[in-house]
Amino acid sequence: MIKTLAVGALAGCLGTAAWIRLAPSDPAVWHEAAMPETAPRPPREGGWLVRPEGGNAAAPVYAGTPHDLLARFDRVVVEDPATQRLFGSVDENRVTYVSRSRLMGFPDYTTVQALPAPGGATLAIWARNRFGASDMGVNRGRVERWLAALGLGRGAAPVQP
């Protein structure tokens, strides 16, 4: 009886782990715009929203065009070994990435758009977790790391904080 319960519990854990890693990602759900008029709901506890206004943090303004800024940001993101491009492209001006945790492979989705701004361009970034109620600040830390890398040695210096 106990052996059967243990085998059942193990099978349940393995099934859950497989679902977390293999669950399909629907573009209609995860490739959403990051601006207020198209993404009106605030991020839940496991999300982090960076945009010119109305987010968790204000987006810096960088010198250059929106296309060039998004291309530089995309280069930073794809260098992250835990992250891959999932939907969209720089030419479409919207890219959604999936980042997975090392141990369980929990997916976090980050959608990025570039916007014109006085003096250059800025980004709207919406990072959110798929499973669980909280991510313990992982999305925020990842986005802040990417923005720091963007501002250091990538030809983009913030024009204003």
Outline the structure in words.
It holds the Pfam family DUF1499. This protein has 161 residues and is an alpha+beta fold. It has a single domain (27-160), classed as Kinase associated domain 1, KA1 (TATA-Binding Protein, 2-Layer Sandwich), CATH 3.30.310.80. The chain contains four helices and eight strands. It has helices spanning 2-22, 27-30, 66-78, 138-151, and strands at residues 48-51, 57-58, 61-62, 83-89, 94-100, 107-117, 120-129, 158-160. Strands 1, 2, 3, 4, 5, 6, 7 and 8 form an eight-stranded mixed sheet that branches. Strand 5 (94-100) and strand 6 (107-117) form a beta hairpin. The protein is elongated, with a radius of gyration of 18 Å. It starts with a helix and ends with a strand. Residues 152-161 have low confidence and may be disordered.
Write the layout of secondary structure elements.
Layout lengths: L1 H21 L4 H4 L17 E4 L5 E2 L2 E2 L3 H13 L4 E7 L4 E7 L6 E11 L2 E10 L8 H14 L6 E3 L1
Helix pairs in contact: 3-4
